[in-house]
Write a structure and sequence with these properties.
By secondary structure, the protein is of the alpha/beta class. It is about 40% helix and about 15% strand. The protein contains ten helices and twelve strands. The longest helix is centred in the last third of the chain and has 33 residues, at about 245-275. The chain is globular and about 60 Å long. Pfam families: Glycos_transf_2 (PF00535).
Length: about 325
Amino acid sequence: MRAGGPPRCVVAVLTYRRTGWLPALLAELEAQAGTVLPRADVVVVDNDPEGSAAGVVGAWAGRGVRYAHEPRPGISAARNRALAEAGDADLLVFVDDDELPSAGWLAHLVAAWSAWGCAAVAGPVPARFLGAADAWVSGSGVFDRRRLPTGTQVSGAGAGNLLLDLHQVRALGLAFDERFGLTGGEDTLFTHALVRRGADIRWCDEAEAVEFVPADRLTRAWVLRRSFRAGSSWSRAEVHLADGAAGRWRTRLAVLAKAAVRVPLAGLGAAGALLRRDVAARARAVTVVASYAGLVVGAFGYVLGEYARRPAGTPPVTGGPAPDGEPRVLGR
């Protein structure tokens, strides 16, 4: 916090070719910027090499919103650009371009940080479907988002609704690892590293930002892919944070042991659900299998290129395990 004054806050929106979603979000952020003192700044980091959001964001230039173009591909590069754009601000708040904060969102986050003096505050990101979802998709649990009592300490968080105390982040020398930029999981690694270095992340359940889920994601294929990716991101981050080669192998073996127990149980659960004609239970069991498959392959360096931008016709890379710390990207 600045000596003798309240904290200065910057809200960062990361975007990549979703300009149609920005006006509603920027209108809400402009309104909420004045709910904290001093008034928060808003920066939009455009990760499209062609700068497709420049025109949309430019229309808000006189209203406390500024534009930053980060042409280097990957979510980590965009997040690190937001860290740089925050300058000497005290707080940086991330929100995704497919989200819309609820009333009082920013004030709740800042108040929570002020109350606990923590390194980060995370809030819920409930999903709102923009299309019809069948019983399998809606019952899979993939779109169920965690809710916790306000003040709960958490061991990690996504960055779609996250406040960072920049003084603590910089004191710990943390940034988003750009080796995770095209695969996702950079926020898992960042927040887990934050906690392992002794920092505190708290939950603020009132600081809600709704995520809009387009119809093309409301499919079984997308749900299974996301389950796999989430598992692989988590285990890859854990392996990355382990101490030395022995620590990495202990983490891998622990993942394998858990998978050896949970996957057969999930298989039995899926069979039972099929006999009972319980669609939701079957979906949950199948997504558990997908998640553990992701956990296992992620622990050995295989990841899905969630944010990969390959030229048309480029074959996917599906070779053997990569050296520790370097991902082997599976085809989309």
